[in-house]
């Protein structure tokens, strides 16, 4: 027995002494500081667009997107009958609604069949208020499609001053249960350790095997996604 223990100790010491060759990822500087946009499609965008594509049948009717209407046009097409764009910056030429989504005065009550809110909630300090207001902006039976960052670099552009949060699946579950009620939302996640490292480095989707990105490991959520529906009768 003592010989076995000593043998295991020697093997552990050998493993400790072994150096890992990080190759191209051995630098203290990332491959890209712009999430991989300068190299192709960022890993988080691959996950976001996969989520929206799976739920494209819900992108319909009177719809709102934050920032611009790119995803409404791409995934809704002719099913979208009216478009609004929410932006916090009054200088936005495209915006039809200006304001902070955590302010109850910003969004109209019960107007929208679909809300697309990607990579925005982490920029809002009062996240619970924002989720409540999004709930009230939906028509009964309307659906919110939302994504938020989990494991992520932090932007160094204009949004760095309001990049307050990252969100876990458990955290998203608490937020949406409080606003939408149990049973009216579904939380998903995308990512694994390989995807997380690729995204943190700024490696583009086109540079890696998608089969490896598609594997899910709950310890490494790169993107947390929520599909939430306002009850038909509140």
What would you call the structural class?
A: alpha/beta
CATH homologous superfamily (4th level) name: Vaccinia Virus protein VP39
Which runs of at least 5 residues are low in confidence (pLDDT < 50)? none
Number of domains: 1
* Assembly status: single chain
User: CATH top level?
Assistant: Alpha Beta
Whole-number average pLDDT? 94
Percentage of β-strand residues: 15-25%
Strand order of the largest sheet: 3-2-1-4-5-7-6
Task: Give a nutshell description of this structure.
The chain is α/β, with parallel strands linked by helices. 30% of the residues lie in helices and 21% in strands.
Would you mind describing this structure in some detail?
With 234 residues, the protein is of the alpha/beta class. It has a single domain (32-229), classed as Rossmann fold (3-Layer(aba) Sandwich). 30% of the residues lie in helices and 21% in strands. It has 7 helices and 7 strands. A 7-stranded mixed beta sheet has the order 3-2-1-4-5-7-6, sandwiched between helices. α4 (127-137) crosses α5 (169-180). The protein is elongated, with a radius of gyration of 21 Å. The N and C termini lie far apart (67 Å). The model has no long low-confidence stretch (mean pLDDT 94).
